[in-house]
Amino acid sequence: MYIQVSEGNRLAEPPAEKSYRPPISDGGRFITEDEADKILTILEGPSRYHDYLAPVLKEAKSKLPRRFLRIVTSAEEVPAHLRNRFVKIGDKVVGGTIDRPNGTIYLLAPPGRTSDTRLEFALHEAVHLLAHPGMNLVDEDTFKNRYGNSCIHLNDVGSFQRKYCLGFGEGATQAITEQIMTDQGINWTEGDRPYKEFTPVVAKLISIFSKDRFARAYFWGEIKEFTEAMEFRWGANWLSVARFAALGETKRTLNYIDQLELAWIKRRSPKGDYPTRRSTSAYA
C-alpha cells in the first residue's frame, strides 16, 4: 500500500552525494514496467538506508524476475489471494501489493491511465518487497519461535509488519520511502494518501530508538532487539502504542508516546528529584 505525508514530517538528513543523480527526480512522474530498473537504481543510491539495503538488494536482485513490476488496470488481473490487499477509497480501488514468493510488485494504474504509475508508489512497494524476510518466507511457527506472537498471520508480509501490525508496518515502509527520496533530492506529490496518519508515529519511533535499531529490525529482521528496546523503555505499554497507531489515531498515539517518555525520564531521575522544565520541554 502507499501513503503520503506533508513536508513537516520529513526527517532531516544530509543531501545525497553531489556526484550521484537519481534516474528520476520527480516522485510524481509516471513510469512504465520497462523502467523498473530505475527503482532499483534509486534504492541502491546514496541514502541514510544504503548500508542496510545493500546486502538485501544484492540477494534480491539475483532472484527477482525480469518483469518484477506489473502495472494493472484491475485487481482481477492479479492472483486471487492478493486481491483483498488493495485499498478501497469510496468507489475506487487503489494502491498496490506484492507477491513475495515470486518477487513481483502489482500496482493499479491511477484512474484514466492504463500502463503506468507514479514512481513514489512503485518505490513504496519495492521497499515492502525488500523488507525482512526478503525473498525467504518464514512460516508462522518459525516466526513465533524467533520473535513471539505476530498480529498479521501471513507468511509473505515483512517481519516488521507481521510483528508490529499495520500502523508501524505501513508507516515504516512509507517513512523509509520518503526519506530515501529526500536524501536523493527526489520530489514527491502532496495531497491525500491512504495511511498518511501512520508516518508521524514511525518518525517518532526512529527519533527515540535510533535509525540504526529501526533499520536493522525492518531490513535485517532484528525484531527481538527492537521489541526489547521498547519494552526496556516503555514496558508492555508499547503494545498500546502499536494498537493506537494501527487504528490511525495519530494524535492519541503521539500524546501517549510523550506520556511514556515523561515516565521514562522520571524513573531515571534520582529519588525525589523531578525532571526540570528544560528536560521535559520536548515532550510538553
Keywords:
11 helices, disordered N terminus, disordered C terminus, two-stranded antiparallel ribbon, 7 strands
Summarize the structure.
The chain has 284 residues and is mainly alpha-helical. Helices cover 46% and strands 8% of the residues.
Shape annotation? globular
Going across the major beta sheet, what is the strand order?
Answer: 2-6-5
Number of self-contained structural domains: 1
Q: What proportion of the residues form beta strands (DSSP E)?
A: 5-15%
Poorly predicted runs: 1-12, 272-284
Overall mean pLDDT stands at 86
- Biggest beta sheet attributes: 3 strands, mixed
What structural class do the secondary elements suggest? mainly alpha
Helix-strand sequence: EHHEEEEEEHHHHHHHHH
What's the number of extended β-strand segments?
7
Q: Determine the fraction of residues in helical runs and give it as a percent range.
A: 40-55%
The radius of gyration over CA amounts to 19 Å
Count of discrete alpha- or pi-helical segments spanning 4 or more residues: 11
- Note the gap between the termini: 33 Å
Would you mind describing this structure in some detail?
The chain is mainly α and 284 residues long. Helices cover 46% and strands 8% of the residues. The chain has one domain (7-283). It has a three-stranded mixed beta sheet, with helices on one face. A two-stranded antiparallel ribbon has the order 1-7. Strand 3 and strand 4 (92-94) form a beta hairpin. The protein is globular, with a radius of gyration of 19 Å. The two termini are 33 Å apart. Mean pLDDT is 86; it is low at 1-12 and 272-284.
